[in-house]
Design goal:
Belongs to the EPSP synthase family. MurA subfamily. This protein is of the alpha+beta class and 489 residues long. The chain has two domains: 212 residues, UDP-n-acetylglucosamine1-carboxyvinyl-transferase, Chain; 209 residues, Enolpyruvate transferase domain (UDP-n-acetylglucosamine1-carboxyvinyl-transferase, Chain). 28% of the residues lie in helices and 24% in strands. α1 runs parallel beside α2 and α12 runs parallel beside α13. It is elongated, with a radius of gyration of 23 Å. 53% of the residues are buried. The structure holds uridine-diphosphate-2(N-acetylglucosaminyl) butyric acid. Uridine-diphosphate-2(N-acetylglucosaminyl) butyric acid (EPU) binds next to α1, α5, α6 and α13.
């Protein structure tokens, strides 16, 4: 079968010829050859963007009772750094179970524009970055999400230079990049902020050198970026106070499969022996613990019983403990299949409220905070929700109040008044202002009596693959309307 490359050959900036990146980390023979990978169908040669979802509305008629089984997609936050990490590798990598989301599409499209050869077969992506000839990813695209900035690490390490616009992403706080910059400097990079862009190069054109660096906060993205950079640095790097999130472990596994030498992933210290080159590899993205957690919360909020797979229960202990304490029944059917029940036969009259404080893994995930807040509006008593990771992740509260939620925000803490008889929410119009906050509105809409109309779907589409279809299969009454088309999509 003819192979079609999704290769957008319009590099926005070619590397400085005085610092030719052919001097850095090149390996002539790819370990995995494209023709041996036997793709199962014709690749997609051009990605449709999700921009058209900007004007769409989600109409939910509630209350809904959910039942059945939901398949969990690959993790967005594991896929993004792994796609960036292919910039470290000579030869082709085959990444499976990549969720089809606007963020992963943007990442793939940026890599393609920089010169990578990419083939997309559904959730499987073949990617070869040997042809990359630009060290400056498209600024507009980088400004759309957080994950694009991760490329600064591999670009610097492999090509000796990177010019990056400051990243975008959900508006949930300041989200600086100081840890990234300090860490890259500790590896011998010169990093400056010029013309609103981060300009970084390896000092004296010698490439990065191993070093010791302690992160002042266990930032997930900075840990991932520095790990990628250290893999190709000369010598040993020791990173301490690093993030312990499962997504960091996935990245380390992928890089080790590519020939890197990373020890300690999942602990607060990483020891990385730099290699002169890495090869491509095959890797399957782990299931999305935040998507799985969101569906568990959907079951609890709607007092339903659903099962889901694949999930990795150890990635979700914190949420599972809280759901059990509230009175939900969790049953593990196989090593990667969980069932959650909040039907009255299992939980009795009502669920009990509980308190959460978000924190780095293994703490309560900030990415489940807004959805959990909705559950607490349906539980007995007063509960508190303390957000300690992002200072501005409460914008969903205003929107939830439109549906009748009784929540008071005081700084970064929300006081949630529950209801003795489950949900007292009623349908209304609300706007998804960020990804997880937007998803909390969908969950509230499922439990609310009447019709809920949600705008700002582009924010939600950044993180939930096939959301409408999955919810409909579980029995939710929802449709997506494009106003200019006047019919459901
Ligand atoms: N921080 C700094 N300096 C830095 C980097 C981070 O002060 O240089 C601070 C941030 O301001 C924030 C805290 O550290 O207060 C945590 O940020 P972190 O860097 O850990 O988050 P991230 O890497 O930007 C990833 C996920 C987020 C998730 C967080 C925390 C990706 C693409 N994003 O972001 O996911 O909330 O880790 O787990 O991996 C989402 O999926 O909705 C989402 C926002």
């Amino acid at each position: 079968m003819a192979a079609f490359f999704f290769c957008l050959s319009k590099p926005s900036r070619v590397s400085n010829p005085e610092r030719p990146f052919t001097r850095f980390r090149r390996k002539p023979v790819p370990l995995v050859v494209l023709s041996k990978l036997q793709p199962h169908s014709q690749p997609i040669t051009q990605y449709q963007t999700h921009t058209q979802t900007h004007n769409q509305k989600l109409i939910i008629t509630g209350p809904c009772r959910l039942s059945g089984h939901v398949p969990i997609s690959g993790s967005k936050n594991a896929a993004l750094p792994i796609l960036a990490a292919t910039l470290c590798c000579s030869g082709t990598s085959k990444i499976s179970n990549v969720p089809d989301l606007s963020d992963t599409r943007t990442m793939v499209s940026i890599l393609g524009e920089m010169g990578a050869e990419i083939e997309v077969y559904g959730n499987e992506i073949l990617i070869n970055t040997d042809g990359v000839r630009s060290v400056e990813p498209d600024s507009d695209e980088i400004g759309k999400f957080r994950g694009g900035f991760f490329m600064i690490g591999p670009l610097l390490a492999r090509f000796g230079e990177a010019v990056m616009a400051l990243p975008g992403g959900c508006d949930i706080g300041a989200r600086p990049v100081d840890v990234y910059i300090q860490g890259l400097r500790a590896l011998g990079a010169v990093v400056e902020l010029r013309d609103g862009k981060v300009q970084a190069y390896a000092a004296d054109g010698r490439g990065l050198v191993g070093g010791s660096f302690q992160l002042h906060y266990p930032s997930v993205g900075a840990t991932e970026t520095l790990t990628m950079a250290a893999c190709l640095a000369d010598g040993v790097t020791v990173l301490s106070n690093v993030a312990k999130e499962p997504e960091v472990i996935c990245l380390a596994k992928f890089l080790n499969d590519c020939g890197a030498c990373i020890e300690g992933a999942g602990s607060d210290k990483l020891v990385i022996k730099g290699k002169s080159w890495l090869h491509g590899s095959r890797y399957t993205i782990a299931p999305d613990r935040i998507e799985a957690g969101t569906f568990m919360l959907a079951a609890a909020i709607t007092r339903s019983c659903i099962s889901m797979s694949p999930v990795i229960p150890s990635h979700m202990s914190c949420l599972l403990d809280k759901l059990k304490a509230a009175g939900c029944k969790i049953r593990q059917w196989t090593h990667d299949t969980l069932e959650i029940s909040a039907i009255s036969a299992d939980v009795g009259e009502n669920l009990k409220g509980f308190n959460i404080k978000t924190g780095p893994f293994p703490g309560f995930p900030t990415d489940l905070q807004p959805q959990t807040t909705v559950l607490l509006t349906t539980c007995n008593g007063l509960s508190t929700v303390e957000e300690s990771v992002f200072e501005k992740r409460m914008s969903h509260v205003n929107e939830l109040q439109k549906l009748g939620a009784k929540i008071q925000v005081c700084g970064s803490t929300a006081l949630v008044s529950g209801n003795d008889k489950g949900s007292a929410l009623s349908g209304s119009c609300a706007v998804a202002r960020d990804l997880r906050g937007g998803m909390s509105l969908v969950l509230a809409g499922l439990a609310a009596k009447g019709t809920t109309e949600i705008d700002g779907l582009a924010n939600i589409d950044r993180g939930y693959e096939n959301l409408d279809m999955k919810l409909r299969f579980l029995g939710a009454d929802l449709k997506r309307l494009a106003p200019h088309l006047a019919f459901p999509v």
